Structure formats: structure tokens, C-alpha cells
Amino acid sequence: MKAPLDVKAIKAEFPILGQEVHGHPLVYLDNAASSQKPRIVLEALVRYYERDHANVHRGIHELSTRATQAYEGARARVARFIGAGAVEEVVFVRGTTEGINLVASAWGPSNLGEGDEILLTVLEHHSNIVPWQLLAQRTGARLKSLDIDDHGRLRLEQLGDLLSERTRLVGVTHVSNALGTVNPVAEIVAAAKRVGATVVVDGAQAAPHLPIDVQALGCDFYAFSGHKMCGPTGIGVLWGRSELLEEMAPYQGGGEMIEIVELERSTYKRAPQKFEAGTPNVADAVGLAVAIDFLEGLGLERIQAHEHDLVSYALERGAQIPGFRDLGPVGDDRAGVLSFELGDIHPHDVAQILDSRGIAVRAGHHCNQPLMQRLGLGATTRASFYLYNDRDDVDALCEGLRAALDFLSGG
Ligand code: C6P
Questions:
Q1: Is 367 noted as a catalytic residue in this protein?
Q2: Among the three residues 240, 274, 296, which one is the final residue of a domain in this structure?
Q3: Are 265 and 187 found together in one domain?
Q4: Structure pTM?
Q5: Which residues lie below 8 Å from residue 212, measured CB to CB, with a gap of 6+?
Q6: Enclosing domain of residue 391
Q7: Does residue 127 line the site of ligand 1, with CB under 6 A?
Q8: pLDDT by residue (tens digit) across 234-271?
Q9: How far does residue 204's CA lie from ligand 1's centre (Å)?
């Protein structure tokens, strides 16, 4: 067994977590929305801007060389982090949303036509639904969806009926942001490959929390966001197989992505530059690489085990609260997301009472409206854990829920 995380020491590395909110110590449980940043990431951003900043790939001067090395070094760091086959398979984007839109825009139109099918799951975030709807409208393709069972697990037995030689694309989230389900991606990829479909994995809630090996998963594209994994906002990653990236049309046109431009036509660089038009987000890529160093220094397996312990403890404590109903699966396939109902109290009211006690959670549909419809709910309250949370935070949450019950149900 690996040694548990030293959460007190980790928390001390996050300046924002030391504050009080509404007169209470901040308990930050909204990590699925965005994580906080450790000091070394903040310092890396300042250091980059104070010492090394210039535009990349363009100048011959010293600062441009340093900035280019820092940016390309960050790309290599990301490639190692996810087990990419080549550094060129890593495209920097703004986040998961842009990564998926890039595939839909640049891969989609030349690979999908009238009557072709896109298979999604009912667990998808809007970012892995709407880009495919836009593509379907452009191409005449049809959308299908894999359902869940009563525990929030995908009903894999439906795959046989849903997949056919018409299925050109399968889009699946690695971890559900709304229920915490860890999906068996490798198994889904294997089934998709049997019918020759391309697979896009939404890794927004997985890359921050568990070890990722894109080659072992067998998928074709994998997208994630820096801001959910201790990195800056505005930077994310799209990993794609080299052969697919090379075949794809550019995503946007502009500087950096071209070889020769004539008035009427242009030739383009190879991936990843082909997909990175304009001045890239150099500083935040550098910050992301430092965030990855930080996470890997602690160990993704340890982080995953820690969050699993927290969610298991929260389920145990939650079960003692009248009206508490957890909506996710119970088992090893559960990440540190706790989405629940509290009697008939509206999630927004629950979140407001928690906020008044310094506890940050999210309430709403979590950008998963089809899932909420499937569950017959308008909204849930969601607490989501990360490496700097501990059992005291879970206790504070549960006390807050009891206070909400007392206050709102007149109990
Ligand atoms: N989910 C949440 O509170 P961006 O915004 O591009 O960084 O990530 C989008 C996204 C895509 N897929 C999944 C599974 C996600 O959870 C998210 C972001 C946040 O759950 C904000 S809606």
C-alpha cells in the first residue's frame, strides 16, 4: 500500500485555502468546477513573465528562444504525463471544450456523412454533446446515446445494439462530473474499434485525479483542462493519434500554423502547429507543466486513493443524515464526486446555507441537462474533492447539511 497523502502539508501549499469566508475557514469542495493552484504554479507564472516572456517560434533573440523552449518543454511534459506516443500528438488548446470542438470541426466533416451515427452516453457534459450536435446538423449524421443503470453506471450491454458499421464516432467521458462514475473506457474503446469507430474521450474529470495512459486506453483523442488539475485557466490539451492529426484539416487559420501563404492558397505546418494558429498561451502551458510535476510528485495513484477514501467516508456519514440520497455508484469505479439530494430542499438553498458556513459546493445541472432529465431531476447539490481536502472537510459538509435541514425544513 502506498503512504497516504500528508494533506495538511499539501494544503499549506495553496495560499487561497488559508482564508476565511463569511467568518468561517474556507472549505473548498467545488473542485470538479475548478481546482485551486499551489504556490509553485503561481511562482512559475510570475517567473516566466519576469524573466523569459517573448513570442515563441518567431524571434532569433534570447528571450524568444527561452520562451519557445519553455513552451515546447511543457508540451513534452504533457506527453510523458499521458503516455503519448509522440510529443507532436499534444495540441495545446484552451481547455476540454475547445479540444472536443477542434475534433468535431477539423475531423468531423470529412469523416461523417448523411446517415452516419455518433454514439454518446447519457453521462456526457454539454461540452461532449453540443459540438457533436453542431456536426450532425452540418453533415446529416445522427446522434445516439448509451443509457445508465439505476446506480449511474453505463449499460454496456446496450453497446451491441447501438454500435454498427454506421457508427463513425463514439464520445465518452472518462469520469462523470455529475455522478463521479469512472467509466470502463478501454472496454468501450474495444467495442467501438470492432465496428471501426473513432473514439473521443473527455478526460476533464480524469486527468486531474487518476493515472492516464492514452495508449493503454486505445482511444483516438483525449481532451482535458489545466484549471481542474492545479494548473492555470485558459490552457488545456487535446491528444490525438499522429495519423489522425496529420489527415485532419486545420482548425483555425492564422500565423504560426502555415508554411507558405499566397494570396489565394496556403500550405500548413504539420501537427501540432497546424492546430495552434496565432500566439499560443505560453505562460499557462508552462504553469500546466509545473502543475503536472506537482501532481506526479505526489503520485496520481495516491491522489485517487485519497479521494476514494473521502467519498467513501462522505457516503458513510451522509447515510446518517435524514433525506440524504447519493446519486452515484458505490464501488471502486467512483471518483471523488458526491452528487446528492437532501429531502425536498432545493439544491440552491442547500448550497447557500453551506456557503454561509464557508463551504463551497456546486448546485444545479452541472452542464449535464440530458443526465438530469434521465434522472428526473432539475438539479443536485455536488461536493467534489481533491488532494487538499480531508475528513474534517467532509465533517464540516455533513454538519452544514444538518444545519440546512434544521433551518429549511423547520426541523
Ligand atoms: N465541468 C463542472 O462544474 P472546460 O470548461 O472546457 O474546462 O471543461 C468542460 C468540461 C468538459 N467535460 C467535463 C466532464 C467537465 O466536467 C467539464 C467542466 C465543470 O462540472 C464546469 S461546467
A1: yes
A2: 296
A3: yes
A4: 0.98
A5: 81, 82, 83, 174, 203, 206, 222, 300
A6: 7-30+299-408
A7: yes
A8: 999 999 999 999 999 999 999 999 999 999 999 999 99
A9: 6
